[in-house]
Specification:
DNA polymerase, domain 1; alpha/beta; two-stranded antiparallel sheet; 8 strands; six-stranded parallel beta sheet
Length: 228
């Protein structure tokens, strides 16, 4: 095991409260009804711009007008979300300790997320997690996004790591499909936004807490360094 890669939203950080606050500010500008936090949790995973499109559609804007409304709203939304990014959400318990110990043990740690880079960077800085990652591949790093495996393969190439020597940890069916397409093992946290993952979207393993993850990694596929 040489590298461990993580999803961001719903895996390491509960970002839904930040996104919901920015979305509702955008909808208010159009005089549209607000969205709920539970709605937002179900929309996260395809990138922030996609969440804005889903919110506009849910507020009653006809499908043929959604793209135009999103384009008109995006500059103000981008500003609003940048301001509140990291203000309302929280890092899940055990994340910071786990990342610091992985780094201290010499493990390569990467972030592969569909969130746009400007928001991902700001989020990590505000939660003081930016030093825990060797690289980030974001939703606008490449022309494609998850579940296209190119994002994971791009990260592995940068880390000079083979797929068999890596593990991806996420929270959704999109994460599982991405990892499988890249030939990478995949584990899923149970606290995320993706809900129960079953059938073809079932991960190799589920993790209830990051303390459990730390213990599991000490014995998984030959990893023998201590992270406790």
């Amino acid at each position: 095991m040489q590298a461990i890669l993580f999803d961001l939203d719903g895996t390491l950080i509960d970002t839904a409260p930040d996104i919901a606050a920015a979305l509702n500010q955008a909808l208010q500008r159009l005089g549209l009804r607000p969205v709920t936090l539970e709605q937002v949790r179900g929309w996260i995973g395809d990138g922030t711009r996609a969440s804005l499109a889903k919110a506009v559609r849910a507020a009653g804007v006809p499908d043929h007008e959604v793209n135009a409304q999103v384009n008109a709203l995006w500059p103000a939304f981008e500003f609003d979300y940048a301001q509140c990014c990291g203000e309302h959400g929280r890092v899940y318990p055990g994340v910071r300790r786990m990342l610091e110990r992985l780094t201290g043990a010499g493990m390569q740690v990467g972030l592969v997320t569909n969130k746009e880079a400007v928001f991902a960077h700001r989020l990590l800085v505000r939660h003081d997690l930016n030093a825990c990652f060797d690289l980030m591949v974001c939703g606008d790093t490449l022309p494609v996004r998850k579940p296209d495996p190119s994002m994971l393969l791009h990260a592995l190439q940068a880390l000079q790591c083979e797929p068999d020597d890596a593990l991806y940890i996420g929270d959704s069916a999109v994460d599982v499909r991405t990892a499988r397409a890249a030939g990478v093992g995949v584990w899923a946290v149970t606290h995320g936004y993706g809900g129960p993952l079953r059938g073809d979207d079932a991960p190799d393993r589920t993790i209830d807490s990051f303390d459990e993850l730390a213990r599991a990694l000490t014995t998984h596929r030959g990893l023998r360094v201590s992270i406790f």
